[in-house]
Design goal:
single chain; 225 residues; seven-stranded mixed β-sheet; alpha+beta; globular; 7 strands; 9 helices
């Protein structure tokens, strides 16, 4: 998608890719799936600085995996980053297969074997609340936009950066009659996304965790006459 007001992160632009990854990693330190996942490292006394370093590497893997599909964007003023793809541009791939091709390269470069073992064990335990390919299942053969991450620079929060970053996606979706998909893990985010026009589809619960996945869809709006 060529979206006005957004800079597409290209695979060869490593500095911009790292900048987007840092913004996403820092923001997702507050996201409850990742908070719960990273809690596995409390067993070995990992502090927030170490968790942040690992999470930035996780998101650098995502940025590098999705950049070849033109699916990572930043606001032109660099205050927000968005990972979102048009399904038809993935050539039949899904979040899981695109990420799998990257194989956690950047993460594995810096994670210790003990950290990898603890986080892999926690991720397996969280499978029941981690259905990240659900949009493809819900949309069937219909094309759609799926958001896998977005973040706003803390210094720009409350200044409309997120809305400016998402408006081009929503305009494209409405013009082409596409639904937009995402999932979240907290009441606060659910409320914010509902304010942006998303509706709850369903939830995934596990007795082992207090957090749960909320699946949400924004259906296309009719264009103004």
């Amino acid at each position: 998608m060529n979206l006005a007001g957004l800079t597409t992160v290209k695979p060869e632009d490593r500095e911009l890719a790292q900048r987007a990854a840092n913004l996403l990693g820092d923001s997702f330190m507050e996201e409850m799936w990742f908070v719960t996942w990273l809690e596995a490292l409390d067993e070995i006394g990992a502090d927030d600085a170490r968790k942040r370093e690992l999470l930035r590497a996780v998101f650098l893997d995502d940025v590098e995996a999705f950049a070849p599909y033109g699916s990572v964007y930043m606001l032109d003023d660099m205050t927000a980053a968005v990972g979102g793809y048009l399904y038809s541009e993935l050539g039949g791939e899904t979040i899981t297969s695109v990420e799998g091709a990257q194989a956690g390269k950047r993460f594995l470069e810096i994670a210790t074997p003990q950290e990898v073992e603890l986080l892999e064990r926690r991720e397996r335990a969280m499978d029941a609340i981690s259905s990240f390919d659900w949009a493809r299942e819900h949309a069937g053969d219909e094309d759609h936009i799926n958001f896998f991450a977005w973040a706003v620079d803390p210094a720009a929060r409350g200044k409309g950066s997120l809305r400016r970053a998402l408006t081009p996606f929503f305009a494209f979706a409405d013009e082409h009659g596409l639904s937009c998909y995402l999932e979240c893990y907290s009441d606060r985010l659910q409320s914010m996304y509902e304010h942006l026009g998303f509706e709850m589809v369903d939830e995934l619960h596990s007795p082992d965790f207090d957090v749960y996945e909320r699946r949400m869809v924004r259906y296309p709006r009719p264009l103004a006459a």
